[in-house]
Design a protein that fits this description.
The structure holds two protein chains of two kinds. By secondary structure, chain A is mainly alpha-helical. In chain A, 75% of the residues lie in helices and 0% in strands. Classes of the chains: A mainly alpha, B alpha+beta.
């Protein structure tokens, strides 16, 4: 099997996880698509050197690094606009609930810094242990614990604010 | 919001669509980037090699190392194939004493002077002198010898280095007075003397090839204007050096083949290096055909110039 075939198969098998990770890391669809594309390019550039079985971790690492790098470059630019793509179209109450939940998540994540967001995504979406998150991001275990705790607190505040807004 | 809620909510976030087109584009772009990197590396290496090559070339053309005459001397034995029955008819420099007496050349139209000067042999390694003295005089290293000859052993005969304690003279003019020597940067002289030959060889390095050419031209001009002895073969002629890597080879001076009289000056130039050889023709050598005598004197020149 050629490396191209292996790479294609790998992406096919993990497209949902990768797509969702990108979405959680970026918060908006356009940026997430760019992130995925760039991460795929960089991964394929060194595909033969990637240790078998660790392809997903490698790609995930590239995505988090790219997100943090991009944030560093754009930190003095205007903050990203909220995504309107999944605004409710008012068809049903269930639809409203689902959209509300996604909107809350999107808002909560946008309240975090890219590094906090990366830690939260790795910890609670990819279900990595704190030690694994620390290893993957190259930080200490204590940093992961404190950052995750701070991030969750911020998300709770953001959610409470959103609830208040909805009630009012 | 607890951690489990967060996990559940994350699972509900709609993923970005990753289709086959994105994968194909990624692979194509990755290959293009790899090609660009390889091209940059190759271009960089080529540019570096080019710069290094130009630097080396400039270094070579800017500073020509003067080869050690002893190296060339050992490869070309100036000792002529002399029949033991032929006695020398001129004062040949002795090689059998630690402090030999040398007969320096005085003028191309005259036989070697009989006024011998004492000289002292000095031991030690040969060094390339950088000329920083008066511009009308040759540096101290000009005309001095670097290797002591202790005996008349076979080796001493074959590679006899002796002291030249007198300036080289062309038609009564000491070479050191030549105005074109102003741009001399280094000089080294060694005397090859064995049996019936006497060959003082100077390697002169000029600042540039133009200065070297000017020096050669001046020597030729002096020689051309010099009154000649009717019995001698006056010569300013190209050397028989076809095929050798030198820009110019001339004989300045005169001697008569088949006699014992004469002093020959040989000049060879390559780039900014000039090799001057003053050969005193003595009996055995004088009996040889002119081309053969030429070769005996010019071979050391060519050996030096081939190393330039």
């Amino acid at each position: 099997m050629t490396s191209e075939q292996q790479f294609t198969d790998f992406v096919q098998a993990n497209r949902t996880v990768l797509g969702r990770t990108a979405m959680l890391l970026c918060g908006d669809r356009a940026t997430a698509e760019d992130l995925v594309q760039e991460a795929l390019i960089r991964t394929f550039q060194t595909w033969r050197k990637v240790e078998p079985g660790k392809e997903l971790a490698y790609l995930r690492r590239i995505m988090t690094n790219l997100t943090i790098d991009r944030w560093r470059r754009r930190r003095f630019e205007a903050p990203p606009q909220a995504e309107h793509e999944h605004r409710p179209d008012a068809r049903s109450a269930a639809a409203f609930d689902g959209v509300d939940a996604r909107d809350t998540i999107a808002r909560s994540l946008r309240a975090l810094s890219p590094r906090e967001r990366a830690m939260v995504v790795l910890r609670y979406y990819h279900d990595l242990s704190e030690a694994e998150v620390a290893r993957e991001l190259g930080v200490s275990l204590g940093t992961v614990k404190s950052t995750c705790s701070r991030a969750l607190a911020k998300m709770r505040v953001e959610q409470a604010t959103a609830d208040d807004r909805r009630v009012s | 919001m607890n951690e489990n809620d967060l996990r559940t909510m994350f699972q509900n976030v709609p993923p970005v669509e990753i289709d086959d087109r994105m994968v194909q584009v990624a692979m194509r772009e990755a290959k293009a980037r790899r090609r660009r990197v390889a091209l940059a590396v190759v271009s960089g290496a080529a540019a570096l090699a080019l710069v290094a090559g130009v630097g080396l070339w400039r270094a070579r053309t800017d500073s020509v190392a003067i080869p050690d005459p002893r190296t060339s001397a050992t490869t070309t034995d100036p000792t002529p194939t002399v029949s033991p029955t032929v006695p020398p008819t001129t004062t040949a420099p002795p090689t059998t004493t630690p402090t030999p007496t040398i007969t320096p050349p005085s003028s191309p139209s005259a036989a070697p002077s009989t006024a011998s000067r004492p000289a002292t042999a000095s031991a030690g390694a040969t060094t390339v002198a950088t000329y920083s003295g008066p511009t009308t005089e040759l540096p101290a290293s000009f005309g001095t010898v670097k290797v002591k000859v202790s005996s008349d052993s076979e080796r001493g005969r074959a590679t006899g280095y002796e002291v030249l304690a007198a300036p080289l003279v062309v038609c009564g003019l000491p070479v050191s007075d030549a105005p074109t020597l102003k741009k001399l940067t280094a000089a080294r002289t060694i005397v090859l003397s064995a049996g019936e030959t006497y060959n003082a060889q100077s390697v002169l390095e000029f600042a540039d090839s133009t200065s070297a050419s000017a020096f050669v031209a001046e020597m030729k001009r002096i020689q051309a204007a010099c009154p000649k002895k009717p019995t001698l073969v006056a010569a300013t002629r190209p050397l028989p050096v076809t095929g050798f890597p030198m820009d110019e080879g001339v004989v300045v001076g005169s001697y008569t083949p088949n006699t014992s009289d004469g002093t020959a000056f040989y000049l060879g130039r390559k780039g900014k290096v000039v090799v001057v050889t003053v050969g005193i023709v003595v009996a055995a050598l004088a009996e040889k055909p002119q081309s053969e005598a030429d070769f005996l004197f010019t071979a050391p020149i060519l050996n030096v110039l081939s190393q330039v």
